[in-house]
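Subgroup meeting minutes
Present: P.N., E.W., G.H.
Scribe: E.W.

1. P.N. recapped why we're keeping a running log of single-chain structure predictions: easier to compare across weeks, and new members can see raw inputs and outputs side by side.
2. G.H. added today's entry (405 aa).
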Amino acid sequence: MDLTSTYIRAVKSLDQIDIAVLVNNIILDAAQQKASDIHIEPWESTVPIRLRISGILRELTHLPHEFLDRIAGRLKVMADLVTYETELPQEGRAPASPDFGNVELRVSIFPTVRGEKIVVRLFDPQNRSFDLDTLGFVSDTIENFKTLIRQPSGLILLNGPTGSGKTTAIYSALCHLIDAHGPTISISTVEDPVEFNLPMISQSQISNSRGFTYPKALRSLMRQDPEAIMIGEIRDPETAAIAVQAGLTGHMVISTIHSDSTVGVYARLINMEIEPFLLASSITGVLGLRLLRTICPRCKVEDQPNSEHLTLLPEGFVNETTFYTGSGCDNCSQTGYHGRVAVTELLNSSETLREGVIQKLRTSKLLDIAIEQGMTTLWQNAMAKVQRGVTSLEEVIRVITVNQL
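Output recorded in log:
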């Protein structure tokens, strides 16, 4: 049984619960179950404590509403936030402590009509390495990505939803450059927030409340003589314009951007009023990332996917593939899955693609060009893992938008 439930059952009444111990136990449970986030959210009748494990939220326990303010207060103290502020969002960090498993915390508190919603992201600095070769990319993708980041100039963009591994991939890319060049390269980052401290890299954290925004930081950073620049996220036209310009003027720039697809990054930036010819000249590659849960090896069994899912696949693929899933066991907490694997889609900016961008071709047409130029799509990459029995068809359909196989 988890520590939180054990502690709650051990006390004679809820009035005797020590909030500091309760919060520490919740964090310890999350760390032991390798959760990425803790969600503490006021519902209509209870306050559920949920853990995001391998991308899926799972309930840990439920608490009475009267505990919410005390838990929020405790986390605010830990993260050095304003304890009496309950009507505005707040964000802060709590350093690692042996009391809660030596994990670092990023605390986000958001006001709702029922009270404050709390999300705590966990970082384990002891068990986090940034090595491109261990990310699980297929060999062609990793070699092409290394070629991109070694170029002296250009803009490389990573695309994917929250929690898809973009930050890990970018940090790994920066560490690869340090390993390759040592003290002969100057690398600077502008992030919101800085998630891990990296050796031999100048990292800066923006502060909108103090006017230290992405555009202001980047304009100043351009005078710091860096060879490589990492921008945490391109969110607005001004940041996009500076990133594109930096990629054109002798800097290797790597950043993330949200769009509905890898190829759709171009349309997103054009909507930010960046001229297509500038995008065609500056962007050297776009890496799409997703994480799929892998089938638990201890309860892996053959599976017969439902007919609706099978209609998405060519008949030949269905006939040649043995499908698997996990039946659920103690090793995977009855989920059928244990761990996750990355699937990628690396778009190289070929001359044909650049011409298509300049002509403002539709995203679907750009995708056709990319595939003709040899890009393996997320869907194709994921289905190869289905064929190898790494993950299930159901998991692929849950995570990835269906494209042509």
